[in-house]
Amino acid sequence: MTIPQSLQRAAANAVEANALLKDPAAQRGTVRPQLRRYDVRCLLPNGNIAETRHVAPSLPLFEEAFTAFCRGSLVETSQGPIAIEDLLPGDELITAEGDIQPLVWKGCTSLVPSRAAQNGRSLRLTSFTADSLGETKPMSTVVAGPAARLLQRAPLPGIRLEHGASLVPVQQYQDGMSIVETAPPTAVDLYHICLPRHAVIKVGGLPFETYHPGPEALKLVSQAIRTLYLNLFSHVDSVTGFGPLAFPRIDLQDSDLA
User: Fold this and answer.
1) Is 105 helix (H, G, I), strand (E, B) or coil?
2) What global pTM score does this model have?
3) pLDDT (tens digit per residue) in 129-140
4) Whole-angstrom Cα distance, residue 171 to residue 145?
């Protein structure tokens, strides 16, 4: 699959347009965001599967849409556990509520976890060893990406839960023993997935959320960045198309451990 030159130019123009919104004097000596490749498979209204390759800035807005699950992660479906790299749009996934939703979007990118992003943001992974969250939770080691969140129903030290259950970043679980940070020095394939509505699914036996950008995700970005972002998702035409969050989220800055 080749990357059309027009996509490369569009991504580069978006970075340039975003920079022009700021004081040019402040831009001197700064490093522009690097571009990253993002691969997408989506379910079309006629039931066919479309595969596209995009080039966009490696900004958190884009990276968080692709970096939740590592290659080899087993997702619970109506046909049993399937490795995330083998999932196809249209496959039926079982949610935490016990209903079935079709996979409508899957994104993939590659990055080197030991290499920090240009803004210093960590892209390291979190490894959950067997039984680290209770008996058979998980049954075997699960490695999650930096954008992954787990549904937490019981209180955790330093974390304030809302309404009895919240989606917590995996970094909050790191204890240095059975749940640890890991940063391979080589490229890792990472994925995220969308269902028709935001939900919690079982991945490796643990309750992870599906992708949702959050209701405020596009409020402070330029029109060029907004257009590039929405072009990744053929099933929505605005951030409201992702629907409401299934559970409230806790961000790193909201916890007592931040």
Assistant:
1) strand
2) 0.84
3) 999 998 889 999
4) 9
